[in-house]
Specification:
13-stranded mixed β-sheet, lipid degradation, globular, two-stranded antiparallel sheet, lipid metabolism, alpha/beta, hydrolase, AB_hydrolase_fold, about 375 residues, signal
């Protein structure tokens, strides 16, 4: 059939169809505010773009007003990019609603230490991914009381949209030395995260968040997916104020023995897709062997998951395929065999348990971490 046959039907679906994520698990109402952070040095990936220019999303427990609404999951420009790149019928991505209130006032309990607020966490996504690809998992953690700062890395992320309407897209490379290129990319991410950490201590920057008139606490935890997981380990090895870290299925890069040893005795969790382990990934074996006798490391696999399943797309794709909407491409087992909603639940539960135990100072935050989750296997 011709595409014109489907267009009226697709239009009818997009007008009446809205995609929502599963409800958050905590009793806090997440809010989100996107912020631009212009840095003072040239962009190391694309110098012709001028100075490095980051986009971040700050998620926080909020006090939504009667007119507050849940924000779209994706910036409108990014939604159009996803529609074209994924081959999704037009208009569908724009209907996806997040679990965070856009621009809502930050909770009165959020401020510097001494107030009733949990920790500030940093998040870095995978290579070729957007910070917006992880909103459901982040909002779930925020509903438990955390503040999370999610960072895009321009020209490393697939698409970064800016307030003035311009965007930065992924700059693919075919390096002569892939290992050196990966190490360099991680260093760039670490520098980005350091800049964000510094900005969170600047009143002039933080006051852009509605209701936030003071500096935020320094980040005390970090997590990331894929390249972001490697960046999390690397930054944590340099920043002793980061108490807890998580790598979501990423290969470790850089001086792995030094990174691993520098983390001890701070707890560091690694979650793995099905088939990813210390046998298939030598960097994991090296990381485990280098922590020293005081190392507190945990490795857990999620049966049936794949590397991309750590994004929100595993859930969204499953919903779209079940909806019967014409034109949704068949991606096979791109997201593994685990149901997308179940993946969000398993991943979210593991993150909640680990951070809660780690920040409470439990001696072994990994003991029984996967209790009640049949898909979780200790490695």
């Amino acid at each position: 059939m011709y595409l014109s046959t489907f267009l009226p039907l697709i239009g009818a679906f997009s007008l009446s169809f809205a995609l929502n994520f599963p409800p958050v698990s905590g009793n806090k109402k997440p809010g989100v505010t996107p912020l631009e952070l212009k840095l003072s040095y040239p962009d190391p990936i694309t110098p012709s773009a001028g100075n490095r220019d980051l986009m971040i999303s700050v998620y926080y427990p909020s006090q939504p007003s009667r007119i507050s609404t849940l924000a779209p999951a994706y910036d409108s420009a990014y939604a159009k990019y996803l529609t074209a790149s994924l081959g999704i019928p037009p208009g569908l991505i724009e209907t996806v609603i997040s679990n965070a209130y856009g621009g809502a006032k930050i909770s009165d309990q959020v401020g510097e230490r001494g107030e009733k607020v949990k920790e500030v966490l940093l998040f870095s996504g995978g290579y070729g991914q957007s910070r917006e690809d992880y909103g459901a998992t982040i909002a779930r953690l925020v509903s438990r009381g955390y503040i999370i700062v999610s960072v895009d890395h321009p020209f490393d992320s697939n698409f970064v949209a800016y307030p003035d309407g311009h965007n930065a897209t992924l700059v693919p490379s075919q390096p002569v030395d892939p290992i050196a290129a990966a190490n360099s990319a991680i260093d760039i991410r670490v520098k980005d995260l350091q800049a964000v950490t510094a900005a969170l201590r600047e009143k002039s920057f933080v006051k852009q968040i509605p209701g936030a008139n003071n500096k935020l606490d320094k980040p005390s935890g970090i997590f990331g997916h894929s390249f972001g997981g490697a960046a999390a380990a690397s930054l944590m090895s340099q920043n002793k104020e980061l108490k807890c870290g998580i790598n979501l299925d990423g290969t470790f890069w850089g001086n792995v023995p030094v990174i691993s040893a520098s983390l001890s005795p701070r707890p560091f969790l690694t979650l793995a897709s099905d088939g990813h382990n210390a046998v298939t990934d030598p960097s994991w074996a090296l990381f485990r062997a280098s922590g020293g006798r005081k190392a507190r490391q945990g490795f857990f696999g999620i049966t049936g998951s794949s590397h991309p399943a750590y994004t929100d797309f595993a859930y969204l794709y499953g919903i779209l395929k079940k909806s019967g909407i014409p034109g949704v491409p068949d991606l096979g087992n791109t997201f593994g065999t685990i149901d997308g909603a179940r993946m969000l639940e398993v991943e979210g539960t593991l993150l909640e348990r680990f951070f809660e135990r780690c920040f409470e100072g439990e001696d072994d935050p990994f003991k029984g971490l996967g209790k009640g989750l049949a898909e979780v296997v200790a490695q």
